[in-house]
Amino acid sequence: LSPAKTLNASPAIPAGVTPTHPAFAADAKRLAALLAKHDEAELMALMDISPKLAALNAERYRAFGKTAAYP
Predict the structure, then answer these.
(1) Structure-model confidence comparison of residues 67 and 58, the more confident one
(2) How many other β-carbons are positioned within 10 Å of the β-carbon of residue 35?
(3) CA-CA distance, 13 to 18, in Å (whole number)?
(4) Using one digit for the tens of pLDDT, what is the confidence trace for 17-62?
(5) Separation between Cα atoms, residue 45 and residue 29, nearest integer Å
(6) CA–CA separation, 60 vs 1, rounded Å?
(7) CA-to-CA distance for 40 and 38, rounded, in angstroms?
(8) CB-based contacts of 4: which residues, under 8 Å, 6+ apart?
(9) What is the DSSP letter of 22?
(10) What does the alpha-carbon distance between residue 10 and residue 71 come to, in Å, rounded to a whole number?
(11) Tell me, what's the pLDDT at 22?
């Protein structure tokens, strides 16, 4: 759950490639749920990131698992 500065949330799957399932999906879901409880100031301190990136990640953690499954 890295605080990436840019993220392509809808990458294209190349023709002929069969997507796999994440090996650590349950762990990611658990970590995102824990991080979603933190406010932006706490994420800034925890991750040593900017206010803008903390706000973006706070939004990502709150939305994690609530969007349609990919693919």
Answers:
(1) 58
(2) 19
(3) 8
(4) 888 888 999 999 999 999 999 999 999 999 999 999 999 999 999 9
(5) 22
(6) 10
(7) 7
(8) none
(9) -
(10) 9
(11) 85
Residues comprising the chain, all counted: 71
Q: How confident is the model at residue 70 (pLDDT cuts 50, 70, 90)?
A: low
List of long-range contacts for 34-43, beta carbons under 8 Å, 24+ apart: 35/1, 35/61, 36/61, 36/62, 36/64
Side chain identity, residue 66: K
Residue whose structure tokens are 């997507």 = 19
For the purposes of burial, counting CB atoms within 10 Å of the CB of 25, is it exposed (0-12), middle (13-18) or buried (19 or more)? exposed
| Per-residue pLDDT, 57 | 94
Query: Which tokens go with 43?
Result: 């994420």
